[in-house]
Design a protein that fits this description.
The chain has about 230 residues and is of the alpha/beta class. It has helices at about 5-10, 30-45, 50-65, 70-75, 80-85, 100-105, 120-130, 155-160, 175-185, 200-205, 220-225; strands at about 15-20, 110-115, 140, 170-175, 190-195, 215. It folds into two domains: about 5-25 and about 95-225, HAD superfamily/HAD-like (Rossmann fold, 3-Layer(aba) Sandwich), CATH 3.40.50.1000; about 30-85, Orthogonal Bundle (DNA polymerase, domain 1), CATH 1.10.150. The chain starts with a helix and ends in a 5-residue tail after the last helix.
Length: about 230
């Protein structure tokens, strides 16, 4: 697709759907490490296992079920709200406001949404911390999904219906290849954020055409089309 065709496509869209962590802000070791440690701590306490076993459970459930919490629900009948309350009790001070991203999102035609496997409260806190809460029109988190995470088709269907999204005029951005492919299968345009290299180990897909566009980050991709130099 040429730049002119891409520009025409992007300006025709009216629904912009963004993953949160590692998509609307760059991969953050500080946040990731906190969350990983809290997940492992929760698993160790609830399942009475050692750290190495907890790490294995965390990663294997993430790969198999799309989110560790969903695996714990299915395999061990844990209370998902208890899990998310504990895991997302994070210090977000390492995340900084991003005025450029705020201006860029505000320039997009139509409405902007966050679609995350994280908890709603976590998403709201992060958006406020990075200064994007005023430019996001809605959050669809794992709470709203009934704790059935992306890339489950029924979760995409529920999100699309909740926000009354015209999928032919929508685009999703996500750092998880499986989530991007699921969006494309739903008839959305899909952009893969490739900067989260570690995620590819658990979420890579075999399909070569799993995305319509690939970029290192949202700003790199959208700025030339919505924020011309000098503006």
């Amino acid at each position: 697709m040429t730049n002119e065709q891409t520009n025409e496509l992007l300006h025709s869209l009216r629904h912009w759907v963004f993953d949160l962590d590692d998509t609307l802000y760059p991969p953050s070791p500080e946040v990731y490490d906190q969350m990983a440690k809290r997940i492992q701590s929760y698993i160790m306490r609830m399942l009475d296992v050692d750290k190495e076993t907890a790490w294995y459970i965390q990663k294997s459930y993430y790969k198999k079920y799309g989110a560790t919490v969903h695996g714990l629900m299915i395999e061990h009948q844990i209370d998902p709200s208890d899990f998310t309350r504990y895991v997302h009790r994070l210090d977000l001070s390492s995340l900084k406001p991003d005025p450029e991203m705020q201006k860029l999102l505000a320039a997009l035609p139509g409405k902007r949404y966050v679609f995350t496997n994280g908890a709603h409260e976590h998403a709201a806190r992060v958006l406020e911390q990075i200064g994007l809460d005023k430019v996001i029109n809605g959050i669809f988190a794992i709470d709203e999904a009934g704790y059935v995470p992306k890339p489950a088709p029924q979760t995409y269907e529920k999100m699309l219906a909740t926000f009354e999204i015209d999928r032919a005029k929508s685009m999703m951005f996500d750092d998880n290849q499986a989530n991007v492919l699921a969006a494309k299968k739903e008839g959305m345009f899909a952009t893969w954020i490739s900067s989260n290299v570690a995620n590819n180990k658990y979420c890579a897909v075999d399909e070569k055409d799993f995305c319509d566009f690939q970029t290192t980050d949202v700003k790199t991709f959208l700025t030339p089309y919505f924020m011309p130099s000098g503006n």
